[in-house]
Please model this.
Amino acid sequence: DIQMTQSPSSLSASVGDRVTITCRASQTITSYLNWYQQKPGKAPKLLIYTASNLQSGVPSRFSGSGSETDFTLTISSLQPEDFATYYCQQTYSTPRTFGQGTKVEIK
Amino acid sequence: EEQLLESGGGLVQPGGYLRISCAASGFTFNNYAMTWVRQAPGKGLEWVSSISGSTISTYYADSVKGRFTISRDNSKNTLYLQMNSLRGEDTAIYYCAKDRVAGTGGWFDPWGQGTLVTVSS
Model:
């Protein structure tokens, strides 16, 4: 199975900060990497698909990059509604594993 | 608007069974793969199973293989998950999601609101 490791597991940031979350795969997944946002008590929401494609309706302050084994989600200017948990996920092979999540909290 | 609505969750004893459903609307159901993802209380997301639009291909996590069966009725725009031999570790919110493709590639969007399955005596 492909293991997905996110870092950090949590972070504290202020509104307006630039935030970067990394995701590393245990083997190459080419660009089959997606990012999701989950707020408490809500279903996850797709932000980025195939590493760098912004899902329709998602603000442009979110961006994704990377390939093979190393990927990054960047929030260019953190907004109050962005405080949530973020998950990466590979769909290169089954099982289609998720990272453990990164909780973004208010500083 | 694309929508998914899960139902059928509840309390079941260890060793018991349950079938949960996911009603889809707002898109051509049989053109898309579908997926179940679960989330244990306070934990992260775990992919459970996926099925192709034609139902030819199904995929399962090792943790549920042989116990859970994914299926779909394209005439009713409904996805199912039959869960047998349930264990305490199956306790979770179960989400269904529209999937771009069941195998390599794909992404999950949108997701339903989830249905809670609790396995306890």
